[in-house]
């Protein structure tokens, strides 16, 4: 490594955080808008047979796209992560694998289902990358509710109920779109191919996740970071564009309307505004 290159690399955690903030901030439109738009077209194209093998539903391309779209959330939360947060996030990762393994094996608590598209390496029928797909959904819902509730978020019961409702609503968007694409299959269900028992399972998992996040992070620290980091919820912007678009294509109007409602929430929280499209605004 040359001296010039070494001099450009951050030496401290603060410098690294500033570098990552700048990197995401300068590429907000590409990350939060272009990637989900391209992803929606690629996923629909794969499901409809427009994209040839080995590009169709290529698990490494899917994972790369997800990681890019998750990057604003990860970079946004990173300054609030300490040893306590790492420990509790580890608990949440373990729970994520455990409940999914139980679900695949027994059908509880989400209802019987199976993965029908490869999402990368599997362990016991569960994608190894599962926490990358699940945990950010809960964190996004948690952060959005902190913004929208304002001082009322201090009420633990209100915070719990609101975030659980938001997480379940996100799955109202996600699962019908994923079933339409053929990502996974419940064998039929009353809500766009998804059984209602699935949402009861999400209430359980959301409850565990919210309680864990409450112990992992200090709410005041997250609020300060949310105030200073305008891109922290860009991953949710990507969610609205990607899964809202997919549900519109397949005529899933209720899930698409719920996705639009999240878009309204982001506008109210001033996270879906001109600064997303014009970095210097």
TrEMBL record:
On the tree of life, the source organism's domain of life is: Archaea
Membrane as a keyword of this entry, yes or no, is yes
Q: Could you tell me which Pfam families the record lists for this protein?
A: Caroten_synth (PF04240)
Kindly indicate where the leader peptide sits in this chain: none
- Enzyme class, one word? lyase
Q: What is its EC number?
A: 4.2.1.161
PANTHER family for the chain: SLL0814 PROTEIN (PTHR39419)
The protein's name: Bisanhydrobacterioruberin hydratase
Organism per entry: Halorubrum laminariae
